[in-house]
Structures are given as structure tokens and as C-alpha cells.
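This section describes the prediction task in plain terms. A model, or a person checking by hand, is given the sequence of a single protein chain and must write out its three-dimensional structure as a string of C-alpha cells. No templates, partner chains or ligands are provided. The sample shown here is typical of the held-out split.
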Amino acid sequence: MGILRVRTIRERLLTGTMAGGVALAALAVMPVVLAPTTALAQSQTGGLRIAVTGSDNQPIAGATVVVSSPSSLVSRTAVTDAEGRVRVTGLDPATNYTVSVDAPNYSNFSASNVAIVSGRDLSVGYSLADRSGATDLGDIVVTGTSLAAIDTTSATVSTILTLETVESLPTGRSYQSYLQLVPGTKPGNNPSSRSGVNYSDVGGAVGSSTDNLYYLDGVDVTDPVSGTFGANFNSEIIQEQQVLVGAIPAEYAGGSGLISRVITKSGSNEWHGSANYYFQNDTLVQEDYHNNSGGFSTYDAAVTLGGPILKDRLWFFGSYQKKNREDEVLDPTTGEVRRTVEQDSEYSFGKLTWQVNEENRLSASFFNDPYETTGSSSATVLNNRDTRRVQGGDNYKIDYTGVFDDLTVNAYWFRHEGEISDYAADTSITENVIYASAAGSTLAQRSLGGAGGDTIRNRDRDEYGLNAEYFLETGFGTHTFKAGYTFTENSTMIDSSVPNPDRYTSLAAQYSGTTFATAVSSAPAWTARPIVAGDMTRLITGITANATALAAVDTNRDGVVTSAEVNALTFTNTADSPYGNVALYRVNRVATGAYEVKSEGQSVYLQDTWTLDKLTVNAGARAEKWTHFDSNGEEIANFDWEIAPRLSVVYDLFGDGRSKVFGYAGRYYDPVRNNMTDFAGGLTGPVDEEQINVAGEWVTFRTRGGASTPDALFSPNTKTPYTDEFLIGYSTTFRSDIGFSATVTRRQTRDIMEDFDLALYSDPSCTAEDCGVNGYAYPGSFFYLPYSYFGYDSAPNSNYVIGTLPGGERNYTGLELTLTKYKTDNWFGQISYTYNDADGNTNSDSNADYQGDLIFLDPRAPNASGPQPGNIEHQFKAYAGYEFDWGLELAGVFNWNSGYLYTPAQPVGGRYFAPTADPYEFGGVTDTWYLPGYIGSETAPSYWTMDVKATYTVDMPFGKTELFLDVFNLFNKQSATGVESRLAGSGVYDYQEANSWVSPRRAVLGARYSF
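The expected answer:
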């Protein structure tokens, strides 16, 4: 029981009178609908701050308040203090709470459909009529009600999604799809939000962010390697999904992307269940104008069941979902069927909740998400390069929560066992063939042989945590203190096997006689460049060690190989190519084996929310520490405690809970993921040798993997990347059911991480004459980084060093406007506009990219800065739904965006970079610098989509039946959504030719029975 003794919340009642009845000022008495709002805590429960007055606006002391719901195992009873106020906490999130108020000499009052949101203390106010004044029950006047509730104690910008709302709208049936309903999220399955990176140099991929965090019942289930979502589950287990996009409090890591928090159902005191089936095939889809997809069929079936094992004590909830899809993948040129692909998914979930007594609760849950696909559904993947995938795993959690008056404590343990494995359909020798763009080569000509081999990956996580919240009232306002500790261990096991140890990249036969200088040049706009000028030093070392190669290259016979001699090297050998092309480069695997790397993280946070009258200050800090271990179990990096301060100020403009202004300043750290642990720690796994063909000899110039020369080391001076955020906002309500919000956000990302070739940047013996002219830094040149910059006295024994990118930055400024119509008079809706301005000089995001391997890519290099590729400058979103009284509900979703920014690109080692100029000197270094005006210079087509849904509900003698019809792309506008960015084309699409489109109009039929 939470009893408040002294004034704890400011006056925010909207007075009301009711002759002969009850007057209600309800700031949060509503079904929760989709709306930008605020969230305070990572807690899985929420609370209410209740103020009770009489019809004369005087506070009622000693009123008994009872808060209960059939969806919660506990009800809370509290008594108002001298100022008529009380705080009730430890309530499960639900939209069907009842608040009952019993006060002497006043009419009994009961409000239904009160919403409880996890991590928030919503404020509600009730005005009771004096029993002696009751005259005419028909003379009822209610004034000042507001369903558009605002939490005037928080600056956090978020959206609350309930299953009821998202299922009334045309969306995909997954928590990832629901994210598209949130203002400002960009298209994609791991959608970028605001400043979140939406682009990767690797393959020029757009539409997947590695900056998001995904929580399930308070546990981080983000993939520790990829930074994307790490678990799938049946969407019908969702009790509540909150999506945080700005002004993130100290409870959370991250913040440069969105944070998705899902709280699952727990059953109830009554048995509830459902069974549904959704179906779609090619007869429900319009013709695809672009030969992107052929015939297909899909179904999605699920069941849920929950109820009491022991009423008021022990509840159960479970679900099972099976998804299947079969696709005909078409050749985009001929339209013929290339292959048939089948996907199977099964999602199971089970949860037991034991309310030991009023104060203590224990829960245990399990879910798994096995998934398998027989191949790629992408039309641009050839059959010989296809792979099948097996992924998914098991997840276990035990959770304890105790509520003791003003103190709430929570402890949990979680284990995730996951797999993501790929198996090649064709294991013949791989050869990628290089053409000049003018040759007009096809993808098939460029891609000979199979996909290589198989890769088995296990990604496991063990985590435990402890959180506490304490409410304190003083004579100078109230304090809500929150603190927590989390320990996490992430392990990554990789077993990569190749049936053929050699994988080739060769020049097409017509380019026999090409020199090394031409092969590494950007002038022919090659379709690939596996070797670059920055490899010169290693090439000279390798050639010098091989007698045959030395004799062929050392044309003046002085025993010393120069860069000029290497540049003059010609490639003519076809005997060493598996398919008769000109041998240039290969990767030779000399050792195999499985290996495992690990990381361990600790985090601590402390936060105080202080409220005094109209003012709330939320001050907190989060400290994080991460340690990484190699495959021998030895520590390879220790990122010591980094402190991230978070501060927000909120002011209730008029003291009535209807309008607020707020500001925020805070820092978010982006801990190094396990992909870099793998890069630096794989000492016992496979070993690859990179080789160049010289006079019929394969000359090794770099060894990747193994303990003799580690592929990478974490430098002692490597910093943890971070993003600073500054935000101001305004929120208000109109009438009783309309809310408006506006925010302006500024974010700055710094200390960006990259891997470096120290032979390129840090060789103290280099001079302008022997290094600067070949694209290498030397002491005194602008780009030179001494060993001390990385924390070394001399050159370390590794191919690369992971360090902090000097001058690397990303900057973001955004404006977001949202207008929400809450559900009254049978309808609801929302419109939002987001403006995103993003620029920078790097796309690196906890991955081993090339900006430390080639000086012309250095962030400080000329023409390296520009608009951020992947950014979408303008977005407009709208949705609405109307429910008729006779069982039919109609809803629609409209989305428009201005198209993503991209860079006209030339591929280098699988990365997409802007074109470069002929060599010239800058900062003492001669290199092929970026041409001006290319970074983020082009914009993909703008496009819009309109989706609609009809739901018809039939009440049954026991339960109800719902029939669904979703129609996506209602007007069948198959607009281009992306274009080919490579100047040489892809072998399927030419430069700037559309290569992705809105899917044709398609319908999905569904039915559900529930009770």
C-alpha cells in the first residue's frame, strides 16, 4: 500500500460538477491508443498519482482508493492524505483498471478503463459530489474531461503500442512491423530512428539500423554481434510495447537509435484464449510489373491460452505460432522461375506468474523462435550463390518483484541460446570475375562457382540484474530514486568450413595484360577491387620473400622491389584461374576449426526524479564497463567505466496537467559489439592467406586469423563511441481527446571506432619520398598518427589495430510534429511530420570498415564530409480507424517519404565508396582522393503507400469471432523505392536504374476466435 502524507503532486484537476451524481476530471481514464507520450522507467509495472476533491474543489482527506483489474494479480488500496492525494504503485500494465473511491459524506465513485503504463506514474483527478446535494440523476453535467493525458513529470519521447490498437490497423504481424507506426521511423525491418545510422558501406545497404535496442520483459534481447533484433515471438503475447526515441533516462543503454520495450501477458483470473489463421497466396496479389516475385502462398496460425491455476495466486499464459511461406523467385531479366524458396517459423511462449502475497511476485518464462529457409527470396541472388539459413533459439527468464510501501525491488536472471547458420547450396570453387563498367557484364558473368562454404554461428547471452525504486516525500517536493545493476556475458561461437580452400577474384579474360596500377585504379570503374594501393608495403614484403616473384618484378635487378616496379606488374596468367580468367587475387584457407569469443559487461545507473509544484527535474547517470576475451579465454580489451549523465527539466505551464515544455541533455555510449571481439579474438579458428598472382606464383601478402599474427588488436587508447543529445519540446491537449507534440533534437556522435593499418598511418621510418608519394602517412604529414596515439611505443604484432577514428563525426538535427486524435466517438487517428538533417564524414558503426585502411577514406581527407547516406529528409505518416456500432471497423495507414540519400559508388572490397580523382597531393600524401560533391549527393525516388483494413466482429454465445481483411498498397502503385548506386551497375541493373519497388497490391485474409 502506498500512502502519501504530504503534498506530492501539483494541482492538475480540471473542475467538474454533476448534480445528483459524480464529476470526473480524468486525465488518463481511457483505453491506451497509439500516441507519442513519455516513459520514465524500465520497470515492468506502473502507477497512478490520484487527487480527490469535493465539488467545491477542496481536497478530501481519508478517502479510500482501490485500484484493480482482472488482468492483474494484485489490487492496491490506499488512503488520501490531508491534501486529498495518494500514490499507488506496483500495478501491471493494462487498459482495463477500475479506480473506486469511497469517502464519508460523498457519493461512491468508480471509473473504469483506466490505463496503467509500465514505468510511468500517470496523474488522474476525481471530483466527488456531496451526498446531501443529490437531486436529479438526469441532470448531469461533466466538464473539463481530458483523454489526451500528458505526463508532465517526464521529458522522454516515446510511443505506446497496445495489441488492440496495432491489430486494428493494417500492419505486419510482428513487433518489428509495429515500429513503422511510430513517428519518424524509417522503412526497414530494423528501422532507423532520428540519428540512427541507416546505411552501411558494406554492400551499400539501406534500411537497417545497428543502433536500436530491443527489450523483452526488461531484458535486452538485441543481437550482440549485428546490433539488430535478436529474437522473434508471437505478437499476440504483447501486453504493451513502448518505443522510446528521445530524452532517454539512465535506466537504458544506447539511445542513438530507438528502444523497443515489450511486456508480455501474464494471464488473468479468468480463462482467456484465442485461435487465429491468416492466409495469402498469389491469387490475392496483383501482377508484379517488375518480375520481382512469382507465385507464392503463405499462412500464419496461432493459439493462445491464459488463466488461473490458483485464483489470485498463480496464473499461466502460453502461445504457439507457426508461419510458413513458399515463394517462386523470378529471374528479373527473363521473368522465368529461378527457384522455389520455403520459409518455416515456429514461436512458442510460456509464462507462470506466482503472486506469493501482496508484496512478492515470482515469474518464470520460456520462449523460442526456430526459423529455417531453404534459400534467398531475393531475385538478384543467383542459384549458384544461394544459401539456406537456420536460426533461432531458446530463451529462459526468472523474475522476482517485491513492493514494500514506497520501495520496489526487482531481480532477474535470463539466458538466451541462439543460432544463425548459413549453408551453401553450391560448394564448387568460388570465383568473382572483375569487369570494367563499360563492358556491360551480367551478374552471372561476375559470379562463377558456388557461395563458398558453410558457417555455423551460436550467439548466447547470460544476464542477471537488480533494480530498485524508492519514493520519498519531503517538505520541498517529492523524490523518486531509481538504481540498478546488470551483469551480462555474451558469447559467440563460429565454425566456418570451406570444401574448397581457395576463393578467387580474377580479371575477365579480356583484361589480360592489365597492370597493377590499373587494377587498383578507380579510372576503369571496376566492378570490384580486391587489392588497393594501400596494400603496397605488404605486397613488396611478400614479393621480396618469393624468389620467382622477386625475379619477375625486380626489373632493374638491384634486389629491392619498389612501388614503381609493383605498379608495372602485369597480369596475364589464366592457368591459375579455376574458370580460365586472369588470375589476380585469392584467399587460401590453410587452417580450419571452431572457436568462441566472449564479452562481459556491467552497468550501474542511479536516477532521481524530483517534483516540486509545476517543476520536475530528472537527474541521473549511467556507468558502463565492458571486457572482451579472445578464443583462448584471455582478456584482449577492457573498456573501463564510462559515465553517461542524463538530465531533463519539465515544466507544467499552467499547473493543470494539459501542457508542458521540456528540455533534455544527455550522453549515450555505444559499447563495442562482439563482431569486433571476433575480429580481434579469433586466435584458434580458421586461418586465411591473402595472395596475389605474380608470374604464376601465389604470393601471400597478408595472413588473416591465427595466433602468430593476430588479425587485429584493441589499442590501449581506444575509446567507447558516444552520442550527445540535446532536445527541447512542447506538448499540449485540446478538447478532451486531441494531443499535440513538437520536439527539436540535436545529436552529435563522436569517438567513432575503426580499425587501422599502422603500416599506412604510423611507420616512423617513412618519408615523403618513399611513402607520401604512394598514399602513406609519414612523420610530419597531416594524416600521420604516431604509435603513441594508439597507446603503443612500437609497432604491435597484428594486421590491424582497432582505435578511435580521428576527426570522425556524425551530426543530426531533427524536427518532429505529431497530432493525435484519441479514441472517442468511435474513431482515432494520428498524423506526424519528421524533418531529418544528418551529415558527417563516416559510416563506421562498430564494424571493421575501411576508413583506417585507405587514407583517401580518412574523415579528415578532402571531400569526405557530406550529407549522411541513408538519411531520409522528410517523412509524413498518418493513420485512422473508425468502429461502427454494428461490429465493423475500418482503418487505414498512409506513409510518404522523400527518398533516401545515397552516394554514387565504386565497390572496393565489397564496400561502396564515392569515385576518386587521379592522384594528387594533400597534407603531404599523394592519393586518389574523393571527387568533390559525391557524398550523399543523390536521392532515391520519393514514394507513398496506402494500406487499409476491415475487421468484422461477431459476438458468439461464448466468446467472439473476428474476420480480417488487410489490403496493402491499395492503389497498386508499384513505385520505385531504391536505385542501383554503383556507377558500374550490378550486372542486373544499371546505375540509377530502379532496383526495388513497393510490392503489388495484395490482400491478407484472417479469422480469429477468442474468449
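For orientation: The longest strand covers residues 454-474.
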